[in-house]
Amino acid sequence: MKEIKKVVLAYSGGLDTSVLIPWLKEHYNNCEVIAVSGNVGQADELKGLEKKAKATGASKLYVEDLTEVYEDGYLLGTSFARPLIAKRLVEIAKKEKADAIVHGCTGKGNDQVRFELAIRHFAPEMTIIAPWRFWEFKSREEEIAY
User: Fold this and answer.
1) CA 126 to CA 119: how far, in whole Å?
2) pTM of the predicted model as reported, rounded to 2 decimal places
3) What long-range pairs does 44-48 form, CB within 8 A, spacing at least 24?
4) What is the spatial distance between Cα 53 and Cα 139, in angstroms, rounded to a whole number?
5) Which residues pair with 63 in a beta bridge?
6) Between the CA of residue 57 and those of 14, 39, 42, 107, 127, what are the distances in Å?
7) What distance in Å separates the CA atoms of residue 66 and residue 42, rounded to the nearest whole number?
8) Is 102 helix (H, G, I), strand (E, B) or coil?
9) 3-class DSSP state for residue 101?
10) In a structure prediction context, what are the per-residue pLDDT tens digits for the chain, which is 146 residues long?
């Protein structure tokens, strides 16, 4: 496995992705973490996101306006948003010369499939890190304690 020096993280600012930033730095030799949030219409949730991302260790935050494209497929909801965000993650990962793309999707739903199929389509060579598949946390309480 190649050495991971820089990653692009699909970042919502919620507990899981906020914990992921220091966790990634700890487990991947203090790699640089670049957070990316896709704005698909949740404007209020984006307030203060840059400060939060940097406070937990991200080097920068991209907030990408995907509202115009997303609104064209609004009836498809989340199933449409995830591939849009993944496409932008790939574009930023290439621009930033990142070694991997990280998402915080759990193994319970379809979001992981939507992210990973889109990433594989646009960057088949890109390493994907999905910590929920193997990290040590088994509950929200453990994440909060971390």
Assistant:
1) 8
2) 0.86
3) 45/12, 45/13, 46/13
4) 22
5) 37
6) 15, 21, 23, 25, 21
7) 11
8) strand
9) strand
10) 578 999 999 998 888 899 999 999 999 999 999 999 988 776 677 788 999 999 999 999 999 887 776 555 444 555 667 788 899 999 999 999 999 999 987 766 677 888 899 999 999 999 999 988 888 898 889 989 99
CA neighbor of 106 nearest in space, from 19, 5, 47, 46: 19
Please say whether the beta carbons of 9 and 20 come within 8 A: yes
Task: State the pairing for strand pair 6-10/60-65.
Answer: unpaired
| Interstrand relation of 32-39 and 60-65 (parallel, antiparallel or unpaired) | parallel
Distance CA 5, CA 93 (A): 12
| Cα(126)–Cα(103) distance, integer angstroms | 13
SS3 123: coil
Question: Residue 74 has which token pair?
Answer: 């609004």
